[in-house]
Amino acid sequence: MKKIIALFVLSISYFGFSQGNTHTQAGGKFEGLAMTPPMGWNSWNTFATNIDEKLVKETADIMVSSGMAAAGYNYIVLDDGWMTKERNANGDLVPDPVKFPSGMKALVEYVHSKGLKFGLYNCAGTQTCAGYPGTRGYEYQDARFYAKLEIDFLKYDWCNTKGITAVEAYTTMSNALKTAGRPIVFSLCEWGDNQPWEWGKPVGNLWRISGDIYPCFDCEFKHPENWSSWGFMKIAEMRKDIRKYSGPDHWNDFDMMEVGNEMNDTEDKAHFSIWCMMASPLVAGNDFRKMSKETLAILTNKELIAVNQDKLGIQGFKHSAEDGLEVWVKPLADGSWAVTFLNRSEVPKKINFDWKKNPIKDTDFGYEADFSKTVFKLKDLWKNKEAGTTKKNFVSDLASHDVITLRLTP
Ligand code: GLA
Known about the structure:
Strand order of the largest sheet: 9-6-5-4-3-2-1-10
GO molecular function: alpha-galactosidase activity
Enzyme class: hydrolase
Protein name: Alpha-galactosidase
Number of strands: 20
Catalytic activity: Hydrolysis of terminal, non-reducing alpha-D-galactose residues in alpha-D-galactosides, including galactose oligosaccharides, galactomannans and galactolipids
Keywords: Disulfide bond, Glycosidase, Hydrolase, Signal
Shape: globular
Mean pLDDT: 94
Bound molecules: alpha-D-galactopyranose
CATH topology of the largest domain: TIM Barrel
């Protein structure tokens, strides 16, 4: 009997049925909601707080009509700026009635009616980064609000959190969501400041590993308030040793993409390749209403998406770098490998890659490719073309900031 009671107490605390706002147990995230990296669209990179229901509906419409949804993008996430500046008399969050005159519930229903999923943003602190009401002290109330709206994804930020412990704040919200009962993907956005990869797995389905992305190849953009945003290659390299923490249902999140924003198509291609190689969530951040056909082709490249969504769920890594020419690799579930050649430099380069002299060893996950023992067939995933085998050196020109991504099949 004692055993049964102990089991009961244990399951109550595991599933977070306590109503307090402090955490005493491991988070109880909904398991299995993100077995491959989540794919979708988020409003922040292009629109900041200038969001409204017309934009969301048009974005959802284009997500379906353009083929983005068929390629796998299914979450539409409203970032900061969807609320009024104050909670109502009951302490509830209030969707801004000027931006969303038909109400948030109707908008969620619209997005669901297109076969898509809907997400919202809030923050663990007293206010969001843009100064809207934060969730601190309202975790269970806000979780019930999201469950009632029937949203599917919550991005949870880390501004205005002085004196708060990250693991406690995110665990409390995770438990609150679990208690509210609606399966909601929980996206931790604390920028990697408190090593979420070390404690985030039972708490959330993905966690940001860096400060905000900036639409450039390799720059650091210094904000006057003393913080920086980062070019995509800076983020790709920022946390070299944490790939072992990423995997199905607990992803390292390299941030929303800048494809289709301020870089050229070559750099966008490189950005998309690296996000696929790193098994990062693929969240578009561009204006779909102005999307060029080149941008659409990059975002919907099926073979690259298959690399990202591969069910092994292993984050790739940099294999080697020489004179600005980098080689990134990622093991895949069927015994093949994705290999990306990236010209990090400002001048064109010639690739002449001798596979036999360059075996791959993934010491974190125990995968290996020894090209002197096994021959692999090569397919160029951007050209959608066979490209010989590993018997011969891989020889090609590569423009500055350009990539070639190959799939190697034994
Ligand atoms: C932080 C996050 C961004 C975005 C903004 C919104 O900077 O990291 O992704 O959500 O806040 O204010």
